[in-house]
């Protein structure tokens, strides 16, 4: 088979990889390779289908949040699905996208940026859109770009109440009165002026977007200037064990209705999905190294691709892979997982439902890891190696309204 690439957390794969015309299944790869390092299984058609579905459904422009998963093969799958705009938050992300897709539209959507990062994005990579949430950041951008001869896109990040499973309101976002002042201050310098917000990651309430848009409309009115773009941010969810979000159409309907009802029809809508595009597109296959009662010691953990299974407590689907076995499946039971490092915090409470006879040497596929899994890997304790392969498997969990593969 020999279709696997090896990568480390500190030396990611850079070269182009052209997938074979017929991709294998995960079970076939495990049977052939018997991997003793974590195996990252990318589903390019799942990712491309999610991009096609979101672009078709959203009533505006779609920017992929690169921080969610910057793996080049993920980005290529998104491009194949029709994605042409990227939300970047660092010079490295900007450089990666520009290198891979010279014609892409890149938007620097981090509210606090070093002057050197603004200069690099603007001068070296042609970025013109920047987010701000303070007068100081506005002054910094204008100083570094020389006001860009009126070619800047300036977007005011508005603080909104948290409505998601993961709170993103405590670090960024201007209060409503400050945001209104920033809109007025930025308007003379902006070829494109916008207001943006983020309701929180894995948001399960479509109405949260309408509520945030209502606050944005009040801020726009208070600012007294025309706004070209309303950016509803990210937060669009995917399914996890015991969590089935509302269908994607419910989110789109809430956003479109709010736009019409609030009189925002003269402003273009933007969105910055990450999880909704990449979440179902990657899983990791780990190997059991030891069993102790209901605890399984595996070769990946919270310092690897399972960070969200640690302190944040996300639950992920899991299944046993035992190549060649003809034995009937044992009843499922809940397990805890421990990662390979020597840190006792390297634990994942789960529960992960697996056959009761799971033992050392078995493989386990853990799914829905396309969002922030590989992106948060570290080299702690030297456990930084992983293998990558493109596969044809469907997602481990379907999300209502997302395109089927």
Structural features, described:
This protein is an alpha/beta fold and 405 residues long. It has two domains: 5-43 and 284-390, Lyase, Ornithine Decarboxylase, Chain A, domain 1; 44-278, Alpha-Beta Barrel (TIM Barrel). It is built from ten helices and 19 strands. The strands form three sheets. Strands 1, 2, 13, 14, 15, 16, 17, 18 and 19 form a nine-stranded mixed beta sheet that branches. Helix 5 crosses helix 6 (135-145). It is elongated. The chain starts with a strand and ends in a 15-residue tail after the last strand. The model is unreliable at 10-17 (pLDDT under 50).
Short summary:
Helix content is 27%, strand content 24%. With 405 residues, the protein is α/β, with parallel strands linked by helices.
Layout of strands and helices, then pairs:
Blueprint: E1 5-8, H1 26-33, E2 39-42, H2 44-57, E3 61-65, H3 72-80, E4 85-88, H4 91-100, E5 105-108, H5 115-125, E6 129-132, H6 135-145, E7 152-157, E8 164-166, H7 176-186, E9 190-196, E10 201-203, H8 207-223, E11 229-231, H9 248-261, E12 268-271, H10 275-278, E13 282-292, E14 295-298, E15 318-321, E16 332-338, E17 347-355, E18 363-366, E19 385-390
Parallel strand pairs: 2-19, 3-4, 3-12, 4-5, 5-6, 6-7, 7-9, 9-11, 11-12, 14-16
Antiparallel strand pairs: 1-19, 2-13, 8-10, 13-14, 13-18, 15-18, 16-17
Helix pairs in contact: 2-3, 4-5, 5-6, 7-8, 8-9
């Amino acid at each position: 088979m020999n279709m696997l690439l090896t990568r480390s957390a500190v030396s990611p794969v850079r070269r182009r990889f052209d997938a074979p015309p017929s991709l294998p299944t995960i079970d076939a790869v495990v049977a052939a390779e018997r991997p003793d390092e974590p195996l990252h299984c990318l589903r390019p058609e799942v990712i491309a289908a999610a991009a096609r579905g979101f672009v078709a459904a959203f009533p505006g422009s779609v920017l992929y949040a690169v921080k969610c998963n910057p793996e080049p093969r993920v980005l290529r799958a998104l491009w194949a699905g029709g994605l042409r705009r990227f939300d970047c938050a660092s010079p490295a992300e900007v450089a990666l996208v520009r290198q891979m897709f010279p014609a892409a539209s890149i938007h620097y959507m981090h509210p606090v940026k070093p002057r050197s990062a603004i200069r690099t994005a603007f001068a070296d990579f042609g970025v013109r859109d920047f987010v701000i949430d303070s007068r100081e950041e506005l002054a910094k951008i204008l100083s570094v770009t020389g006001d860009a001869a009126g070619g800047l896109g300036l977007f005011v990040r508005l603080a909104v109440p948290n409505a998601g499973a993961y709170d993103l309101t405590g670090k960024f976002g201007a209060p409503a009165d400050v945001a209104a002042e920033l809109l007025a201050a930025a308007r003379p310098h902006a070829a494109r002026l916008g207001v943006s917000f983020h309701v929180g990651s894995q948001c399960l309430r479509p109405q949260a977007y309408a509520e945030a848009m209502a606050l944005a409309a009040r801020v726009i009115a208070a600012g007294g200037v025309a706004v070209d773009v309303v950016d509803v941010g990210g937060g669009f969810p995917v399914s996890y064990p015991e969590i089935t979000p509302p269908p994607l159409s419910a989110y789109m309907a809430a956003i479109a209705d709010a736009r019409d009802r609030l009189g925002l029809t003269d402003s273009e809508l933007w969105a910055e999905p990450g999880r909704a595009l990449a979440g179902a597109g990657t899983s990791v296959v780990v190997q059991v190294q030891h069993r102790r009662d209901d605890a399984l010691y595996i070769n990946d953990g919270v310092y690897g691709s399972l960070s969200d299974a640690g302190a944040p407590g996300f639950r992920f689907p899991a299944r046993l892979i035992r190549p060649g076995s003809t034995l009937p499946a044992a009843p499922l039971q809940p397990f805890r997982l421990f990662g390979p490092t020597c840190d006792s915090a390297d634990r994942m409470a789960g529960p992960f439902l697996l056959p009761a006879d799971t033992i050392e040497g078995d493989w386990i596929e853990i799914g829905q890891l396309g969002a922030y899994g590989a992106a948060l890997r570290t080299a702690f304790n030297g456990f930084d190696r992983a293998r990558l392969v493109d596969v044809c498997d469907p997602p481990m969990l379907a999300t209502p309204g997302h395109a089927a593969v």
